[in-house]
Design goal:
Layout lengths: L2 E5 L2 E4 L4 E8 L7 E7 L6 E7 L4 E3 L7 E5 L5 E6 L8 E8 L12 E2 L3 E6 L1
Length: about 120
């Protein structure tokens, strides 16, 4: 059974940092893109960051310049370094994987993790 396992969420004060990690396990389809989405209470799920096998990165407007996505070379694993965290970053963060080398939107992702809570306090 293929699954994504996330780790690294938690509670942090504004201005602090957290690092999320995600690893895919089990026999699986060929993963071309891995990324992170988040969903805050009462809001729609939104893209945080994505990274393709070719090295192309995409970031949500609200996190660009503060967050950085990276992928372990040759591994189906992805990390998200989150710096200068803000109250508005509080959400459940989901790791996602896609066979699509250029996924457009969350519906293009084939596999999702269970989510990890990130809470930013003042």
């Amino acid at each position: 059974q293929v699954r994504l396992v996330e780790s690294g969420g938690g509670l942090v004060q504004t201005g602090g940092s957290l690092r999320l990690s995600c690893t895919a396990s089990g026999s699986m389809f060929s993963i071309n893109t891995m990324g992170w989405y988040r969903q805050a209470p009462g809001k729609e799920r939104e893209l945080v960051a994505a990274l393709t096998n070719s090295g192309r990165r995409a970031y949500g407007d609200s996190v660009r310049g503060r967050f950085a996505i990276s992928r372990d070379k040759g591994e189906n694993a992805v990390s998200l370094q989150m710096d200068r965290l803000e109250l508005e970053d509080t959400a459940v963060y989901f790791c996602a994987a896609s066979a699509d080398p250029d996924p457009e939107g969350e519906w293009a992702y084939d596999l999702w993790g269970q989510g990890t809570q990130v809470t930013v306090s003042s």
